[in-house]
Write a structure and sequence with these properties.
Neuraminidase; 4 helices; mainly beta; 5-stranded mixed sheet
Length: 299
């Protein structure tokens, strides 16, 4: 009997340790809807808890989808006056008193585009199925074309910040939204500083595929293999923190082709583009990583 009790205790301890490990994230839904084929950008909706605005990569229509945390589409919105050449990221924030979405048509795999674009729209109301572009900003990098997949909005500085994907290390550029300069130039600000704790190839380390900034000024970036968190303690702009602060690498399970990431007060969310060979659509999970260490410390 004692032997059985000991065995039972060992089994409890084993499964408790397994649960502790797997509970570092929760899968809340899957991208079963065929419209969610290449989700490359995601940001939390301002008026709905655990709802997100998402968009597909190049080749889709100029549409946004509002989804819940089960990845069910609740709203499809056509963006009139926009074109999806290579949408890669989306940001949100208050700009000129309005909840504004910033859609980043910033992808350029071969670094051939003369200009990239960011579309500003008012965040759609629940009843709207189409909205018009409020402002289109066509920008040039000050030092030549580059590929990028991370767009952030600094509400305090009123700046757009772009982090490049194929530079080693990744480069940070910014554009002041209220600039009176007729030239729309993305100014180089410096390089991202990442610690290579896992000894990845540097090309993998700096292959930044998405980013987000919270209302409390925290920042998060991801590549295909990891996620990096910037504490909001230092009262600096987003561009300065990205170029001067070394982030903390936090827990993340590698996805199929994870590019989209969103940050809120309780944790962060990620999802991947689907495996789609033109014949089948393999749905991908939406992962939620709650209460990681920096948030537990109220940072």
């Amino acid at each position: 009997m004692i032997r059985y009790k000991q065995l039972f205790i060992l089994m409890v301890l084993f499964f408790s340790s397994c649960n502790k490990e797997t509970n570092t994230y929760t899968i809340t839904g899957y991208s079963h809807d065929m419209r969610l084929k290449e989700v490359s950008g995601m940001v939390g909706a301002s008026e709905h808890l655990n709802h997100f605005w998402v968009h597909n990569d190049s080749g889709d229509k100029a549409v946004l989808y509002r989804v819940n945390n089960a990845l069910e589409i609740l709203q499809e919105v056509l963006i009139e006056g926009a074109q999806n050449i290579d949408w890669e990221d989306i940001a949100i924030g208050k700009y000129k008193g309005e909840n504004t979405l910033f859609i980043g048509d910033i992808g350029d795999n071969r670094a051939l585009r003369k200009t990239i674009s960011v579309y500003l729209i008012n965040e759609p109301k629940p009843h709207e199925n189409k909205v018009s572009v409020k402002r289109k900003i066509e920008m040039q990098y000050q030092d030549g074309a580059r590929d990028a997949e991370a767009l952030l909005f600094d509400a305090d500085a009123k700046e757009l910040v772009v982090v490049t994907k194929r530079d080693v290390p990744s480069r940070v550029y910014s554009y002041a939204l209220d600039s009176t300069d007729k030239r729309t130039v993305l100014a180089y600000q410096g390089n991202v500083k990442l610690t290579n704790e896992t000894l990845w190839d540097k090309k993998d380390l700096y292959r930044i595929t998405g980013g987000d900034a919270s209302k409390k000024r925290a920042i998060i970036l991801k590549n295909y293999k990891g996620v990096f968190y910037y504490s909001p303690k230092e009262k600096q702009s987003i561009k300065d923190r990205l170029t001067k602060q070394t982030p903390t690498q936090i827990h993340y399970e590698m996805e199929l082709q994870g590019e989209a990431i969103a940050l809120d007060a309780n944790g962060y969310w990620v999802t991947s583009e689907c495996a789609d060979d033109g014949i089948k659509h393999v749905a991908q999970p939406l992962y939620f990583y709650p209460d990681f260490l920096p948030l537990k410390n109220n940072e």
